[in-house]
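Summary for the steering committee. One of the milestones for this cycle was to obtain a three-dimensional model of the protein with uridine-5'-diphosphate bound, which we needed before selecting residues for the alanine scan. The sequence and ligand used are listed below.
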Amino acid sequence: MSETVELSIVVPVYNEEENIQPLYDELKPVLDKLRQRYEVIFIDDGSTDESFSELEKLHQRDERVRVIKFRRNFGQTPAISAGFKNSLGEVIITLDADLQNDPRDIPRLLEEIRKGYDVVSGWRRDRKDPFLTKKIPSRISNSLAKKLTGLNINDFGCTLKAYRREAVKDLELYGEMHRYVPALVSWRGFRVGEIKVKHHERKYGATKYNIWRLLKGFLDLLNIKFWVKYSTRPLHFFGTLGVLMSSLGFLIDAYMVYLKIFHDQPIGDRPLLILGMLLIIVGVQFITFGLLSEILTRIYYSNKHVYEIEETLK
Ligand code: UDP
Ligand code: MG
């Protein structure tokens, strides 16, 4: 069946033993009704419960169920990345294993893809999660993400998303970056859409994240912002900072010299003198740093290109 798969469902699994069978039971009728050749790929992200043997059981009964087992817990992003790399479908849909996403939203996601979107993101409009530990942090991180990435979607954190293979096939994901795939691909020129999806409370098992995710997610966001804006020209970022700082330092110290020479004032104990020197030194370091980053960029892009071709007429 391998070459002819049209749709791949990718599900990251970390200690979800009670959820696997019910999820499969919800997924199967939805997928069968689509009349597309599909596969379901579960990535067991180092579960320490019976998740893997549950998955094995499914795989034995249904040849469309494939399972990838990680040696240890690497995290949801690596799990999703492994799913992307190992799936065969033209369209890939990711969803959580914990039944919080609803497989019945899949046909609507596919409809949007057919309309011409390359990525369609789910928006958990009526989110069924604790207010203080989930909804508030997610509101903060979503508005930050919206501002920083410039992508106008409301729910970066929802795993239920559909992707055209083309859009994600050469993405290198790490950290907590699976959330920002829409931003990364939209920057490369792909079309990103959003639809409202259902969300349910977690019935079995526990959430794998605590409040620290907010901080990690924020750092990943900074990383993506920098990457999107400056990865091909880091000197513009570091160099601008450096030149501004050095110039300010130079002006300050020139003023000090002026006081010394023309007004005969002692300047040895003036904090301004030290500030000026500090700014000059840090500024020069920023410029050097920028130059070094340019060398790294050159190495990074030596076997890649910075543009995306949609089509070529020959
Ligand atoms: N997950 C994973 N590896 C991890 C953490 C989570 O594969 O290290 C999976 C988890 O099994 C679930 C999905 O990622 O299918 C989302 O996790 P969770 O439900 O804990 O997140 P929440 O919904 O609480 O934000
Ligand atoms: Mg969940």
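Key point for the committee: Residues 271-301 form the longest helix (31 residues).
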